[in-house]
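Support request, please re-run this one:
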Amino acid sequence: MKKQYKLLVVDVDGTLLNSRGVISTEDAEAIARARERGVGVVVSTGRAAMAAGWVLDHLQLDGYHIFYDGALVLNPISGRECYAEPIDGPLAREALDFARQTGVHIDLYSSARYFIEQEDWAADIRRQFFRLTPTISSLDEVCRRERIIKGTLITRSPEERQQALEVQGRFRGRLAFSWTMTPAYPDIDFINILSARVSKGRALEELCRFLKVPLADVVAIGDGVNDVSLLKKAGLAVAMANSSEELRSVAQTVTHDVDHSGVAEAIKKFIL
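Re-run finished. Output below.
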């Protein structure tokens, strides 16, 4: 008999969102059918909750979801958190200062807002693709008054990537750095800066404990290095065909790529 899974956890960029920045009809329909079977569906993303809201609306998903690469597990409808791991305030200010010294672009996030100091090309991408409206403010002041869930370095050139690596090297072991991308912007790196205790895998553990769902009853699907910890914790680990080799090495199976509805293929094979 096929195992009856209770929870499906799906990454967003590169897994649900294809190179055109949309969710295929096949993926959306398969997710709806899984929910009809009584399977809970959770998105797990490096995005802020406000940047994933339209994805949840499009798929008609409620309940708790994993945001900020695992730094926040939140029900966006009720506003209730079941887990949060913010960056220590003084450490956030230290990272901000060093990023400025290197010259790399940095922005900051609380649980509900996205902060920048001035409009630029990165803010345009956030607004147009991620549907995020920035709050323009002194980031020094933001560090003093807000709970910082995530910072992000954004690079689009070899020089900027080297600057981001300098920041990562400076805070190695003190902060977690998660390099992500989206197929819609293949030449741009989005490097999430998080508490060193954060991972998607740990967030999944906390969510499953909260929901009283065994990890063995979870199917997880992802494509990026930031999904490695997630797939390691799940009962069934599924990598997209467009995944990195590092992710494939921890997956139990590989599905189609994101432009060929790999999520739908995995749902049909293992859930429906």
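The two ends are 12 Å apart (CA to CA). The chain has two domains: 7-85+198-270, 89-195.
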